[in-house]
Each structure stands twice: as C-alpha cells, then as structure tokens.
Queue: 2 jobs
Job 1
Amino acid sequence: MGSSVSHAAAPPPPPSPPPAYGAYGAPPPFAAADPAAPPKPHEDAEKEAAEEKVDYLNLPCPVPYEEIQREAFMALKPELFEGMRFDFTKMLSPYFALSHSVSMGNMELPSQGSEVVKIPTSNYEFGANFLDPKMMLIGRVAHDGRVSARVKCDIMENLALKINSQLTNEPHYSQGMFTLDYKGKDFRSQVQLGNNAFYGGNYIQSVTKNLSLGTEAFWVGQQRKSGVGFAARYDTKKMVATGQIATTGLVALSYVQKVSEKVSLASDFTYNQMTKDVSASFGYDYILRQCRLRGKLDSNGIVSALLEERLTPGVNFLISAEIDHWNKNYKFGFGMTVGE
C-alpha cells in the first residue's frame, strides 16, 4: 500500500490565472493582434518601379508638331498692340456669329538710323464665324481689301482638313496653305501644300508617357530651299521642356515651370546660325480671379506686358505696354472686347 502511494504520479499543477486586463476582464480591442511589420526598402522600390513602368501599348497622343511650344508662347508671345482697339462679337445662333474690329495706332516704317519712324494708321475688319462640332469657318474682310479665311473640317474621326488663305491687292503677298492632319492613338502626322510650290510634312510620336519626339521636312520650289528639323518635348504636371533644331541653322529651346494652377514661369532661347542672331527671354503668366496678366523681358532690353481684365461676363478690358529703352521706342495701347 505504501509503495503504491509513493510511486503515484504527482498531480498536475493548477492552471495559471488569466492575465489581468483591468476591470473589464477581457483584452482590449486589437490587443492580441501583432503590430504590422514596417515595409522593407526593397518592397517600396519594387512598387515605385512598377508604377513607373512604361506601357508602350497605351501611350498618350502628343500635341501637334506646330504647337510643341504652345505653353511658352502663351506667356512669351502675348498679342501686344499700340493705340486703341475695339472688338465686338454678336452671336446670331448657337453656330453663327458676326464680328466687328476697329483699331487705331501707329505703323513703324524702316529707317536707316536707330530712330523709329511712325505714322498714324487705322483699320476696320468685318468677320463671320461658323462653328460646328465637325466644321469651323472663319472669314475676315478689311477696309483696304484684304481677305483672310480659315477652314477646319473633320473628314473622319482621326482625319481633318485645314485651309488657311489670305488675299491682298499687293502682288506676291497672297498666301494659301492646305493641311491634312491625321491623329493616331499615340502619334500625329501632317501633310502640307502651299503656294510658291511649298511642300511639307511632319510627324511626332510619343516615346514614353512624358516624352515625345518629332521631325519635319519642307521644300519651297520657287526659292529652291529645303530643310529638315527635329524636335523633342518633355512634359509633366509641373513643367514642360522643348527643343528644336533644323538644317536651316535654327536652334530653339523653351522651358515652362508651372508654379501653381494659376501661375506659370517661362523662358526661351533662340539661335540662328545663318544670321548669327541670339535671343533669350523670360516671362510669366498669372491668372487671377477676374484678370490675366502676362509679361516678359528679353535679352534686347525690351519689357512688355498685357493685362486682360474681365469687367462683366462678355466684356473684357485690355491694356498693352512695351518699352524698348535702347531704341527709345515706347508703345502703349488699350482696348475692349465685347461678346464671347
């Protein structure tokens, strides 16, 4: 009997009391879950690489070749004028409108010296516009007999015909241009035919999501001139950079920094090997709630600005100014635009 007791197995130890979780007697929410491990550096790099991977089968369509510097032109090439200008547009229907334009100012004449010779001049233009989702017709007739017309017709979904013409009483100053514009999924191409036996064409292709490359060629039969050019454009949400070079000796560079949705800074550089001319300019484009201010300063010492103030819907007030200190040439103008 005593041996059986001595060799019996020891009783199991009492169960340990449950951990104390305060007065609630239950674990707080998410207490039993282990904290998530921080992501590893190589995982972040792989994720960024996957996002930056280029889908060459789904690239965006680039801008037209002739508009490759359009952001820089908006800030650096405002439509300046001297004197007074008044533009009135009357909508007769949702597709048809008539316009009247009156301007009075000075016309500069070439002179041998550095002094600028100006004579007063005035101009009146009557215009008619027809705007349709698939067709655009714009015509202008000036009091001196000049007639200009622009036509844009969508032949197919991706093919458009453009016609630009200008007729004058002066010999050899009338011009005409026919353009076929084809818009592909990730490329654009154009074929041009104009007076003076002008033949041209261009092509621009998206290489990546932000980079597009293009080329152009032209031939002018009467002047026996030809040229080939190349262009590149890199654009993001914050900046646009372009570069162009041609066999005619022209080199053009531009850069636009989008500071915000309403402020843009632009600069450009142009070099002409044939004439040895070099120019550079810096400009800005500031869009306020009721107005838009654009201006620039170039390497020739010319300072210019254009203010467009919206007084009421459909009525805009314009102020234009340009100062050339070196040549003592000062231009100032104001105008008003009525109608949309």
Job 2
Amino acid sequence: MIRDDKQVLSLQNQNTKPDMYLYSSSGKLINQFQWDKGRIMEMGWTSSEKLMCVLETGVVRLYDIHGEFTQFSLGQDAKDYGVLECRIWSTGLVALIGSYKLIAVTNLDEPRPQALADPLISDVPHSWTILAPDFTLSKHLEVVMAVDSSVVVVDATSRQDQSLSQGPFTRMSVSPNGKFLALFTADGRLWVVSTDFQNNLAEFATSSSTPPVQMTWCGTDSVVLHWPDTVLMVGPFGDWIKYSFEGIVQLVPEVDGVRIITTATEAVFKIGSTAPGAVLFDAFEHFEKKSPHADENIRDIRAQLTEAVDTCLEAAGHELHLGRQRALLKVSGDRAMKFWVRRRILIARKAASFGKCFLDSYDAQRFVNMCQTLRVLNAVRQFEIGIPITYSQ
C-alpha cells in the first residue's frame, strides 16, 4: 500500500516522499520502507508472492516481503514514451506505452519484453484487460481492449475487431477461470459474454451511468461492482444484492469468492491488535476459560474500558455473522440484554455484565439500543423476508 500521488493531500510537516507498506491479509504490518523511485503505474502480487511495481519510466521492480528487490526494464520504447497503463497477472504483465503500443512480459523468471501486434489506437482505450495464456485456446497471451463501441483482441501477431455495437465499455473484467468477460457499458448496463464472444450470457441494468470504481468477479458465479459507499453483486439470472459500506472498500477477487476489505471490525478482530476493544475481547475469552489472564487484560485497559465496550458494541452492529454478534455482545453486555435478545443471542445472558461490571458507571441505553437494532436486523435478514440491510443503512 502506498499513497496515491495523483490525489491532493495536505502534508503539513510530513515527509513529501511516500512510504510503501506491506501488510498481511489480516492487516498486520510486515514491512515499511520509503519510496523514492518514481511514479508507480500499477502494482500487484505474483504467484511467488513478490510485489511487482511497474514504474512510469518502464522499470519493473519485484520486491520480497523484506523489501529486497530485483528489477528489469521494459525496453527503450517504454523508457522513451513512458508507461500509460499496465495490467498484471500472476506470472507476467502487459504495459500500454505512450506511443499506444503494447509491451508484454510472460515469464518473470526470465523477463524478455515483447511487442504485441499494433492495436491501431490513438488514445487510451475506454477500458482493457488481459487473458492470460492459460485461459486462451491458442495458449498465447491476449489483450482485450474497448475501442469506440466495439472490442478488439490483440495478441503477438494479430488484431481482431469483434464488431460489437453495444459499447463503449467503460469497465471490463475476466472471470477467474478465464471463460467469461463482464463488460460495463456507458449507459449503465452490465453485460456478460463468453471470452470468445460467441455467447451472450447475461445482461443487467444497474441504473447508474457512472462507471464503478472497481468491477470484479465473485468466483465464477456473479459479478461484484463497487461505487463509493455501495457494493452491488449481480448473479447469473439477474438476481442482485446490494451492500452499503462507509469509508474505503477494496475488492480482492478469489477463485471461489471475493474479499471485501473494510475497516468496520478491524480494531477487534485484527490479528495482533492491541486496541482496547481487542484486549477486552481477549479478556472475555480467558474469562470463559476461567483463566487468570482475564484479570490481567482488564487491568491493562482499565483507563480505556469505556472505549473498549463501545468498540465491541459498534463492531457487533457491523457484524453480519450471528456467532460473532453473540461474542461481541457478551463482551460488552449489560443485564438489559435479557429483555431484548431472544433465541439467536440468548446464550449471551451468561456473561451479560462482563464489560460493564468493571466500570463505575456506563450508559446502559447504548447496549439496549444495539440489542434492539440487531434483533430487527437479524429478523429482516432471514430468507423469509430477505432484506440484507446493514447497521449503517
């Protein structure tokens, strides 16, 4: 993770050179180092878990988790014209340079930049993506580009216009198995076709002509689109579900799903977190095991206990998993819970006053309100009603 140098930011007394942060998937900081190598046009992870950074100058750096790197160049043309955009996959990359030509590297162990066929464009395409060699019939890399109202497919030797008229396509994404291509049109329609463009599989009107910030796949069954504060999942038969999020959201596609990275419950459940809410949660787990470490943890956060209880209550509100809701309410509980939580969180009664009993005074109404809210939310989320409303909504 690195600061976006295209965005205006008040640095005040901070260093103008950004830092590169390497985190684990659970949010633990692994390494941090200052970045002074120029503008990064694209970065991503390789199959050998190295961070690939493609620079505007055509230099590609491969970092391990310790910050050590190797580098190579995309050639003289990339250096002379600069890299405009880039697409990365687990074993290679394709760069669009300032002369509107494509340069590919298909083997990172022995990087040999190769110019692809001329796409015959004079501007950056509306959107573009790649089909890795493993997913094409020819077993060669293919680049799919949205040009005018159609799509062109470029490989090492040829350029093929698919003669479509539904465009322009402002976003596109290939499914994890390489069989399907999701396209987002300028008038707000999601269109799914096979990657050979022979089959029209689905079409869905999103009612938004604004392109999503991110569009990717959830496994091979549905497409996930992200606008600010909103994530929309569209299934193969036009079924859809919408989630609302506050703050920064990042979609990470997986072969069998998609990870939605937010900051909602990170303070409690992040591995190694020392936030008061996380320590209180840990203390409760020790309490359930009749361990003396529970008392030690409580003493450590005595001055921040109110904050800890509030954090666990807030996390319970954002949590969709009933088991975690129960655990979080147990941690921050109050006896008022007995009146408001039935069946699904009935077990929470046994530790109803765990967090509050260590405080001289605490506003029990906060706990009552959260239990009321969760009771309603859990009821309407059941399939009989089927409204997946969130706490923020």
